[in-house]
Design a protein that fits this description.
By secondary structure, the protein is α+β, with helices and mostly antiparallel strands. Helix content is 36%, strand content 19%. The mean pLDDT is 91.
Length: 275
């Protein structure tokens, strides 16, 4: 039986993927920034939040699409873009040393079966300037993302290896969501970007992933300037007004959460193993 990765090992593999992406982006003038818990980790811990099990970066939509077009998979990592997957953001995955078992698939098995530890890449899109209109859009996207999540739970192939109850639950989900394939739901999420683009909007946001904060809306100019931040002994890029971004999203991000909230994101449904 393959040995399961410890949290420290998972973080180490994630860091190596991030270094590879950072090098590619610098060499090709592609803008990116650490974001979410990874950015908090850089500021508060100079590295990973001790209990965090993933890495998040964000890119303006034009740079994001360039990245998807120009970044090439190799013997170490594989790009699984949103256009190949069940989600509306992209991942770069380790394929050399680790594998993944998950009850919540993010891509067809022919792709995900080859992939292990990943890091998430979120596009930043143009949005309306009116805050109430933006909040209405967030509500709609959250609805679609909830449907997407439910549909993903029904994506694994039917199997009796986990028992009859699991088989029946999976069969029920497949029947329930047969009329709403995940591709149809994801197209609805993408349509929410219209009529705005990153280029023609004054305000921008991450609007492709569920549980979006309705306060996560920023002037587009925040993506004009970047600074170096230290993360696990390496320098990576962050938007220069990272404090504004983190405070708008999290409030007092320097305050540690309560002990019961210091948990890994995917601990109950996704497991990583050495090959």
């Amino acid at each position: 039986m393959n040995k399961r990765l410890t949290l420290a090992e998972l973080q180490s593999i994630s860091l190596s993927i991030l270094c590879k992406i950072d090098s590619f982006c610098r060499n090709n003038n592609i803008r990116y920034s650490l974001t979410y818990g990874t950015l908090i980790g850089a500021v508060r811990h100079k590295g990973f939040i001790p209990w965090d099990d993933d890495v998040d970066i964000m890119m303006p939509r034009p740079d994001y699409e360039r990245f998807l077009s120009e970044f090439k998979s190799d013997e170490e990592v594989m790009l699984i873009s949103e256009y190949q997957s069940y989600i509306t953001f992209s991942r770069v995955c380790d394929v050399k040393t680790t594998i993944c078992e998950t009850l919540l698939p993010y891509a067809p098995q022919k792709l995900s079966s080859k992939a292990g530890v990943w890091i998430d890449i979120f596009p930043i899109d143009g949005v309306e300037s009116d805050i109430q209109s933006f909040r209405n859009k967030v509500d709609l996207i959250n609805h679609y993302c909830s449907l997407q999540l439910q549909r993903r739970w029904g994506c694994p192939p039917l199997t009796l290896s986990k028992g009859y109850m699991y088989f029946l639950k999976l069969l029920y989900r497949k029947i329930k969501y047969i009329a709403s394939p995940v591709s149809k739901i994801n197209n609805a999420i993408r349509e929410c970007r219209e009529p705005y683009t990153f280029e023609n909007a004054d305000y921008v946001s991450q609007i492709v992933c569920g549980k979006i904060y309705d306060r996560e809306i920023f002037k587009k100019e925040i993506f004009d300037e970047y600074v170096e931040v230290t993360f696990e002994g390496y320098n990576f890029k962050a938007v220069s007004c990272w404090d504004e971004v983190l405070r708008a999203t999290y409030g007092d991000y320097m305050e540690l959460p309560s002990k019961e909230n210091r948990i890994q994101h995917s601990v109950n449904h996704t497991f990583f193993y050495w090959k």
